[in-house]
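Deliverable D5.2: sample structural annotation.
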Amino acid sequence: MIKKMSFVLVSIALLLTLLYVITPISTLFQYMINAERSISGLRLHNLKTDGLEIEYLRGGSGTPLILLHGFGADKDNWNRASGYLTESFDVVAIDLPGFGNSTDNINLDYDVFSQVSRLKKILDILQIKEFNLAGSSMGGYIAGNFSARYPERVKNLWLISPFGVVGSEKSEMFSAIKNGHNPMVLPRTELEFIQLLDFLFVERPFIPEPIVKHLATKAEKRRELNTKIYEQIHRMKNREAHPESPLDEVLKNYKGPVLVSWGHKDRVLHVSGAKVLKKIIPQAQINIMASVGHLPMIENPKGTANSFLTFALKP
């Protein structure tokens, strides 16, 4: 079934495109998402902690593997890769507070320390004591800081194109921000959303036109909150990012196993960050993925998942 996943997903997308004239776009989009979850063996759950409602996906068996998405994303970013991971792990993909269907109160703080504290409470409620921890982009920044604070709980740390490596070269995104344009926060129209997708991927996944319009509308509604979260996570000063807890500082004394995966053509966060992390985490294994952009688990789900399976399940 896993081998047929891409074909099935494209077929579903095409069918939904044909049906969009008689069905609300939001409903069609949810059908697509539900299909991906089902194929990957994930089921929807929710919990409450400190007045926050948290939504997450869970499926599979084995040692827990906690998956943290990046900025502007949600738990469903992991659906395609999870289809390969649920065969070996108890996969838990979380909507971080402020994203997806979890509480998104603009009056809350979303800095890295607040999110690390919330992640600990979520895992405590789920009674998950020892686990593998993975994070993409912003999620990698949070995962790295969590691991530095609670190293006894993390069996393997998997950083995928993580934010927070201050010693890396300036990426195309940060060069654009310096010139007054932030491609990660600004999409308001269908065209701008497509431009964002082209920025994130070398070969962006097929998305039917009506779904693109729907996603652009959702992004516009979240513009104010996304701007606040972006500024808190990045601590922007004079259009430069100043992470308050850089990974190349907090992980200097980290002794646990680490896998760093990075798309070679990442335009959002420069791939040189992988070399920086290798210098300060000598035991880290580095996996640079050719012809892949900022989101390897979407652009190359099988290859991305297999890199972790090889790393974590080695004898």
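Annotation notes: The chain has one domain: 2-312. The chain is about 45% helix and 15% strand.
The annotation will be released with the project's public dataset once the embargo ends.
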